[in-house]
């Protein structure tokens, strides 16, 4: 049977998609799907520092502003992503800074300028993205050797407590925005999960303005349910808002070249979507449910195949915007 409700209609909390403004403009079924199914949107790259400030002192906000205008006209919430990210989405000019005083004031100015520009237009920000190391659960301080290609190591230059200061800058720029710390892999990396939870509790004790935790949740059909539940539960115990901020569920975690979708894999994906959504709904108190955002709209435009150099189909909509079993899994998880 065809589902009778959209995700937005069925959910008691916001449902989001990460979107590309170009696809919203040029791809009618993509736009239609966002309009019908979502109540919240996140820009997939358009609000990252590399797009907003490709050169020092230059701020290109036009694309983001157009997306925000689309959201406003369609009455969708906008979640800002992201003010600070150590990785390659930071513009090259910023990655070249080595002096801690210079870097601190540059980031402060960036956050002040961008936060002020989008004030009242975004509900929330991922203030710092992916600052915690995968295994040790410490603030990332990777070598600076690869700067210019991949890493921009703000943790190494500014020290562990930079994350707290970025939240203070963001709060000053937009006192009404809900401020999130966003990261991935909490469901399979216990040291990372505890480090994030401890950091959040420490911020609360010290009066650092943090309001939420984003669990990206880029998982697969093989990700153990216990880990997913544990990550959601421990994060929710902080009392902060919880955003499943970048959900997708890969069917080809082994990145096999001969991957083919089978009814069995689609069924596993159905089960996993249902599990994530029902667990979020059950475990996170309603007052802390910031919502669930899917990282992309459809399998045809998903980031995963480009990244893994393999075939995959991790979203609830197929490349023709048809509703997959995964879509029904999402709906069943909401019941
Ligand atoms: O727009 C240009 C295009 O003009 C150019 O021809 C093309 C050739 O390389 O690149 C296009 O830009 C790409 C952009 O995505 C637009 O799709 C960038 O190279 C590419 O690096 C960028 O990748 C994005 C990645 O973050 C880095 O910013 C992915 O789309 C986006 O899905 C991904 O999102 C991240 C979250 O921000 C944080 N969590 C993980 C998640 C997945 O990696």
From TrEMBL:
Keyword tags: Carbohydrate metabolism, Glycosidase, Hydrolase, Polysaccharide degradation
GO molecular function annotations of the record: endo-1,4-beta-xylanase activity
Entry-linked InterPro entries: GH, GH10, GH10_AS, GH10_dom
Membrane-spanning parts: none
Annotated Pfam families: Glyco_hydro_10 (PF00331)
Family per record: Belongs to the glycosyl hydrolase 10 (cellulase F) family.
Name of the protein in its database record: Beta-xylanase
Organism encoding this protein: Spirosoma endbachense
């Amino acid at each position: 049977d065809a589902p009778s409700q959209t995700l937005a209609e069925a959910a008691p909390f916001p449902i989001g998609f990460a979107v590309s403004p170009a696809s919203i403009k040029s791809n009618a079924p993509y736009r239609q799907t966002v309009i019908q199914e979502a109540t919240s949107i996140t820009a997939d790259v358009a609000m990252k520092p590399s797009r907003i400030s490709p050169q020092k002192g230059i701020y290109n906000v036009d694309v983001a502003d157009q997306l925000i205008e689309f959201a406003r006209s369609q009455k969708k919430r906008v979640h800002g992503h992201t003010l600070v990210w150590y990785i390659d989405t930071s513009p090259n000019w910023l990655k070249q800074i080595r002096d801690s005083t210079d870097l601190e004031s540059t980031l402060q100015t960036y956050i002040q300028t961008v936060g002020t520009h989008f004030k009242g237009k975004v509900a929330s920000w991922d203030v710092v993205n992916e600052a915690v190391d995968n295994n040790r659960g410490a603030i990332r301080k990777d070598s600076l050797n690869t700067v210019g290609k991949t890493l921009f190591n703000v943790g190494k230059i500014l020290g562990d407590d930079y994350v707290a200061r970025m939240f203070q800058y963001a709060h000053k720029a937009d006192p009404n925005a809900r401020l999130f710390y966003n990261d991935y892999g909490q469901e399979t990396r216990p040291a990372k999960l505890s480090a994030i939870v401890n950091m959040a509790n420490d911020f609360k004790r010290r009066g650092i303005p943090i309001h939420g935790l984003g669990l990206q949740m880029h998982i697969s059909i093989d990700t153990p349910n216990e880990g997913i539940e544990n990550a959601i539960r421990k994060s929710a115990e902080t009392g902060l808002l919880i955003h499943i901020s970048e959900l997708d569920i890969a069917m080809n975690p082994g990145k096999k070249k001969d991957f083919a979708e089978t009814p069995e894999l689609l069924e596993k994906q159905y089960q996993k979507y249902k599990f994530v959504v029902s667990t979020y709904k059950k475990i996170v108190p309603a007052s802390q449910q910031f919502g669930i955002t899917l990282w992309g709209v459809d399998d045809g435009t998903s980031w995963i195949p480009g990244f893994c150099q393999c075939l995959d189909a991790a979203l609830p909509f197929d490349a023709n915007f048809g509703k997959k079993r995964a879509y029904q899994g999402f709906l069943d998880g909401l019941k």
